[in-house]
Amino acid sequence: MLFICPFLDSQRILYQCSCKQWKTIHYLYFCRHCDETRCADCVSHEVDSQFCPQCLEYIPMLDAKLKKNKCAHCYQCPCCQNTLSTRIQLLPVHNPDSSNDSQPNVKKLCYYFCYFCRWSSREIGIPDQTGPGGFIEPVVPESQRLESLFEYYRVLSLKEKNEKEKKRMVPRTALSLLDKYGITSTLSPKVTATLRARMARNSSGLSTSDLTKSFPQLEDFKPSVGLSEDGLPKLNVDEYYGPMDDTATDDDDSSAIDVGHLNTLQQTLNQIERQPKKCSDLYPTSQQLVVKRSLRCKKCDHNLSKPEYNPSCIKFKIQLSAYYIVPELRILKLPSIMKLNETARIELTLTNPTQYLINVTLLPVDITNNPIADVILPNTVLQLTPKDDTGDLVDVESSNSKFNDDPNVISFRQGNKIGIYLFVTPKQGNGIQCQIQFRMKHDYVHSILPSTLKPASNTALNTEETFKTTKETKWISHMIKVNLANISD
């Protein structure tokens, strides 16, 4: 693991989600309607659009399903999985009908080439194309069998659906009416037996023979037969790695494993339908489509994140990330080693991401949540100035004189960021990592949608409605865990 500056390492500060999971603030969302944080596990994911990450072509849902979620124009290198480029080569072609031999005709040939690993489609014998476009993909050995299975189950599901619709539309029979009113005992046993036999014949289940008669395309379908363990063919290890005899010498060419011509596991899994063994059998794979998804709160069913439909647009229609609402904590100064039963001073930074003044209070938690160390938190309300994107120069002296900060609690104040001191005393040793927990409580300004207000005078001729945005302040608390340095005796 690389050594990261504590100020840049955001993994040391963890926030507790509403589902009791610990996440960093960059992986959390904030629901304005529930006033709770949400992670990726406690929100519902909805697919908005699908597009190719290489050519940025928007593909509708139905077309993407027919194309198996693959792009028809972009391909990936089978060796390094990078995007293949189309290289054009011009070849002179002699035209016998031309009277002027000094200007021969030129033929354009296109082939795929990878600029990262220098792989080309000519290495595996793919013929050059006369124009940029897709090549004929190799046939999957079991493609016909899979298509027959898909067709069989599709027809079977359609038949069962039709049978269910027929049962819904079947009128009430005489037997059901007789059973309902209890008059079957008055009839003769012969009539009752005849009605029940006819009812059983009409409600009989669907058989495979009836299915094939109704759908003649299933007559050639033959179900596969399961094999026992003894009936399965044994794996030929020598086919992959050569003979594994102990008597083989180093000079024997058959015992050497040619790693350069064998595929890796990742290369084989990328083409699982064919499972090639050698590098010469690798073919370009189509570029997989990526999706833009919107996130929705499972509790109140409101959107937390909704992107634009345009693939080239990186903006969001709705983006309720916790990073833009909840104050962010970072570690500024941290001792490399914390000693047992010795108080260490930790300096943290607190940043206000909103456009409003925020009051923050750090509250202690139950002692069972801090079994490793004792922590002393500031007992004052920390005020954070609003975020100003246009403020390049900050007057530090005027900010300090405005808020009258205690130097024993607040180390510095710069714009919308302040530095605070925490005092931690480890209670356990043995080289474990020191962890502390506390609760951060802050106010949050919630903007309500514009409300419609009617004019005060009823006799006014101007009937235009005025809009006004109301704001509501709420108090929210978050559970925070801080991972500090290791404890030494």
From TrEMBL:
A Pfam family: Dynactin_p62
Main location: cytoplasm
Places the protein is found: Cytoplasm, Cell cortex; Cytoplasm, Cytoskeleton, Microtubule organizing center, Centrosome; Cytoplasm, Cytoskeleton, Stress fiber; Cytoplasm, Myofibril
InterPro entries: DCTN4
Keywords: Acetylation, Coiled coil, Cytoplasm, Cytoskeleton, Isopeptide bond, Phosphoprotein, Ubl conjugation
Record bears the keyword Coiled coil: yes
Keyword Cytoplasm: yes
Family the UniProt entry places it in: Belongs to the dynactin subunit 4 family.
Assembly and oligomerization: Subunit of dynactin, a multiprotein complex part of a tripartite complex with dynein and a adapter, such as BICDL1, BICD2 or HOOK3. The dynactin complex is built around ACTR1A/ACTB filament and consists of an actin-related filament composed of a shoulder domain, a pointed end and a barbed end. Its length is defined by its flexible shoulder domain. The soulder is composed of 2 DCTN1 subunits, 4 DCTN2 and 2 DCTN3. The 4 DCNT2 (via N-terminus) bind the ACTR1A filament and act as molecular rulers to determine the length. The pointed end is important for binding dynein-dynactin cargo adapters.
Protein name, per record: Dynactin subunit 4
Organism for this UniProt entry: Dermatophagoides pteronyssinus (European house dust mite)
Lineage: Eukaryota, Metazoa, Ecdysozoa, Arthropoda, Chelicerata
